[in-house]
Amino acid sequence: MAQDIVEEYNHQSTFTYSSKIEDEIRNGAVEKPKGYRVSWHHNPDVERYHFGQLHPMKVWRLTLTKSLIMGYQMHNAMDLYSSRPAYKEEIARFHKEDYVEFLSVATPKNLIEMYPELAQSTGFSSSVYGVGDDCPIFDGLFEYCSFYAGASIDAASKLVNQQSDIALNWTGGLHHAKKGEASGFCYVNDIVLAIIELLAYHPRVLYIDIDVHHGDGVESAFWSTDRVFCVSFHKYDKEVFFPGTGPLDSTGPHHPDNPGRNHTINVPLNDGITDADYAYLFDTVIGAVTRNYDPSAIVLQCGADSLGHDRLGCFNLNIKGHGHCVQYCTDYCTKFKKPLLVLGGGGYTPRNVARAWAHETSITIGAANKIDPDLPEDMPYREHFRREGMTLFPNLGGWKGQNLNTRADIDKIVRSVHEQMRYIRGAPSVQMNYIPKEVNQWREEAEKEHQARRMEREERMEERDGAGGLLALKSRRRELEKNGLFAGNMGNMKTSEFMTGPISG
Ligand SMILES: [Zn+2]
């Protein structure tokens, strides 16, 4: 009799246990990483904007990325932050005030009134702050810029405050924007703003750019300092490939007294580079720089237009080949306890951008080997991945046929980098920037305003959702108790906020 009961009990228990495992496998079973914290900075409002029907930049890729990350339940392994928009004054820490002012007032309607010369077709860019076909003025442009820039600044400040060890903002990484000019689909350079934030506390920042295009905006911003070391891997062709800069011999200013001398590395590549060649170059170059420069923080721009099959790209990289760079930086930063800021960038085949950034998120949380390569069954927009099959790792290599990077080209790059490293010895000059008090004050105000808006949104949800609203009310109360209404904290984001996106009206 007793045995029967035991057997019955075991049967029940086995059944429950195995279905729990099945459920966990289906949901990715991702847990918070051990020994370090990862934060994800995102504001769903950034997904609302459109560059125009024919423009290759599709903000939609951010929605797909989020859908994959959450479909795999990876948000459970990270601290989620709803970022607030960056203040004009913060943006002006790098950008010229007249340019910031222009961005904040220009609309498709008033643009021609302000600049009648733009009525004629301008081509890719114009003398009016770089505005043109590449960087159009669309409705809500400044809000869009403020959202992605705010997320990068918040991410950097979480790293500085040691509330996070690896911070992700897939909406950022807009590396072409210049001090007073939009360029290459980029208006506000969130990377420069984030690095400025890091420089207040970190003596040496290493910036790494794996977008298929040269990271020219960031390079020029920090050209004359030894406190930021810029390394860009990109397709280089002076004549035909945007932006036409970043040759091997461009290593910083020439003047012997300029501290920025030798603090730039450009890795110019040709069409069709493979995973193996790219990984070899990345490991060799970044290995040499980290050994010699000893950065105190790393910023990695993960432009996904370096993947095979990108609408604007020309490399043969697979999702894992691209992710290799994120793995390298994650391993380095967790081993040596240095903060890592991971940003998005270019990427013009949205479903593959989403695959890459979801995979790279899994790398940062140490879950790359735990998640199922088959895409989650119950995720929004799953159908959009059908073309390559429902896998996280479609074959994107071999697309460009031949790899035009010869062994001799690669050896030449490696020799040049090793030669340059002879000049990078010992700690560079450390002069800490003073942060003006007003900047922190603006930030506090921005955070308060953002918190107030979130509360308003939640109140609307409560009115709308009935019983669900009660839950929302409870969680909001908990949050208020935790943070204090006027503590000026960035709100730790709730899942519902990620999923539902903005409520209009
Ligand atoms: Zn690019």
What this model shows, in words?
It is found in: Nucleus. The protein is α/β, with parallel strands linked by helices. It has 15 helices and 8 strands. The chain has one domain (37-435): Histone deacetylase domain (Arginase, Chain A). It has an 8-stranded parallel beta sheet with strand order 2-1-3-8-7-4-5-6, sandwiched between helices. Strand 4, helix 8 (216-221) and strand 5 (228-235) form a beta-alpha-beta unit. Helix 6 packs parallel to helix 7 and helix 13 packs antiparallel against helix 14 (467-483). Bound molecules: zinc ion. Zinc ion is lined by residues 211-213, 303, 305, 346. Zinc ion (ZN) is lined by residues 211-213, 303, 305, 346.
Write the layout of secondary structure elements.
Blueprint: H1 2-26, E1 38-42, H2 60-71, E2 79-82, H3 88-91, H4 97-105, H5 111-114, H6 141-160, E3 166-169, H7 190-199, E4 205-209, H8 216-221, E5 228-235, E6 264-269, H9 275-293, E7 297-301, H10 319-336, E8 340-343, H11 350-364, H12 407-421, H13 437-465, H14 467-483, H15 495-500
Parallel strand pairs: 1-2, 1-3, 3-8, 4-5, 4-7, 5-6, 7-8
